[in-house]
Amino acid sequence: WMIRVANDNPAVIDEGFSDTITSIDPNYLNVDEKSKIFQLIFQTYLLKKTWIPRWTRNTLPNFCQTVDYQKMKLIIADSKGSETDNLINLGNALDVISRMLTNGSPLIKKDRLWWKTKLVSLANIGNENGVIQRHALSALSSYVGESNLVNQVTNLLTHKSNLVREAYLDFCSDIDPNSDIVINKMVDGLKAGEEIYSRHGLYKINNKRGTQFLLEKLVSDPKFLKQFLDKESIFNGHDRNGDEAIICNIRKYANDKDIQ
User: How far is CA 35 from CA 11, 178, 213, 246, in A?
Assistant: First the structure.
C-alpha cells in the first residue's frame, strides 16, 4: 500500500518515507515487489537530483534486483548531464554498488573485474569535490588482498578534501594492511598530518611481516618515529590504549629471530 500511496502522491517520498519502506524485511517480498521498492526510491532521488538519505542507503541495496542492477551499471558506465547531476547520480549509484560489493551480492560477482577497472578509473578522475573518488575508494575496499590496486590508484594524500585523504587511507589499509606499500602509505599519511586514519591503518597490521616492516620504519625513519610518539597521548589514555594492537603484535613475535 505504501507503493500505491507514493505512486499517487510522489510528494510523500521524503527521508521518513524512504527509511520506513526500506526497513521492510525483503525476505517476505517477491522479486517484483523488491524491485518496485528499489526503483521507487532510487528513481525518485535520481529525478530529484538529491542524495539518498543516509539510513536508506544502508538498506536500499537489499531490494536491488537484476534489472535494477543493470540500470545502475548503465548510469555509471555512461553518465551524462551537468557536473552536478553526474556527482549526485553517480554518487547514489556508486553507494549502492559499494555496499553490494562489500556484502558479496550474487548479482555483482560476475562483473567484479569490470567494476575493479571502472572504480579505479573513477578514483583517478581528479575532481576537486571528491565525492566520486570517496565512493569509488569505498567500493574498491572490498577487493581485499589485491594490494596491486594501491599502485593503480593515484596517491590521494595530497587531495584538497580531507574526506578523500581519509577514504584513501582507509582503502589502502583495508586492501592489505600488512604489505610494505600500504604501511609506507600509512607512514606517509602520518607524517603529512593525517594521524587518525594513518594510525588506525597501522592498527590493522596482523602478521609477522607487517610487524617487522613497521618496526623497521620506526627505526629507520626519525620523522615518522617522532610523529608517532608525539601523538601517542591522543590515542592512549587512562581508559583506553589505542596502540594495544601494535603492542600485542610485537609481543607475539618478540622471540622471532627476524623481529629481533
Answer: 20, 40, 49, 46
